[in-house]
Recover the amino acids of this structure.
């Protein structure tokens, strides 16, 4: 089994600060059965996702090289209790610079307050630096602003969204 990305891109300094028996690592294709989707449900609606659908999505993400960096925290019982994504955008501006987008940060309710959220952000920042991003950005709810400030982030712009009416069209892949 090949990993999404090299495990040693997650800073050792982050790993050593985890509670005993916990680990932080790239998302694994077996994490469906370790509670990954249940952790994401802390954040928003996940929907009904079969194991097969999960595997297909995982394989797609893995094939999209140098773009998706999904990490999880596994507790001492072998359950996923935290997760986060770094999505890397290749720009033309800033001399073809790389920007990291932090997405889908979630910690299981029973594990909140143990600095796991902070460790996940530190890990994603470390990976972004390792691969050459000049910054990471994220959007968050007002009530999480202090958390992200404690992770070193500063409020600097307004986030906007446009939710489209009706169900989404079937997914199309444009690669020729
Ligand atoms: C927000 C979330 C990721 C924080 O994770 P966590 O592991 O509970 O937070 P940590 O223990 O790492 O907290 C680190 C610091 O931030 C503070 N903090 C955490 N959440 C906070 C909040 N919502 N408001 C204010 N401070 C907060 C902690 O008190 C701690 O401060 P300290 O270092 O002074 O003790 C977690 O509560 C969560 O999953 N919430 C639901 C999903 C969500 O909102 N995700 C973010 C989407 S943008």
């Amino acid at each position: 089994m090949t990993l999404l990305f090299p495990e040693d891109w997650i800073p050792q300094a982050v790993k050593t600060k985890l509670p005993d028996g916990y680990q932080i690592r790239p998302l694994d294709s077996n994490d469906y059965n370790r509670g990954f989707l249940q952790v994401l449900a802390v954040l928003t609606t996940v929907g009904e996702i079969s194991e097969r659908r999960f595997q297909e999505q995982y394989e797609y993400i893995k094939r999209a090289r140098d773009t998706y960096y999904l990490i999880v925290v596994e507790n001492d019982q072998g359950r996923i209790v935290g997760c986060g994504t770094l999505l890397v955008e290749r720009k033309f501006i800033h001399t073809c610079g790389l920007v990291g987008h932090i997405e889908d940060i979630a910690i299981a309710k029973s594990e909140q307050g143990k600095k796991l959220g902070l460790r996940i952000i530190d890990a994603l920042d470390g990976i972004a630096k390792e691969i050459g991003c000049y910054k990471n950005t994220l959007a968050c709810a007002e009530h999480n602003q202090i958390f992200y400030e404690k992770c070193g982030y500063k409020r600097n712009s307004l986030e906007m969204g446009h939710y489209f009416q009706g169900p989404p069209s079937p997914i199309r892949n444009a690669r020729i």
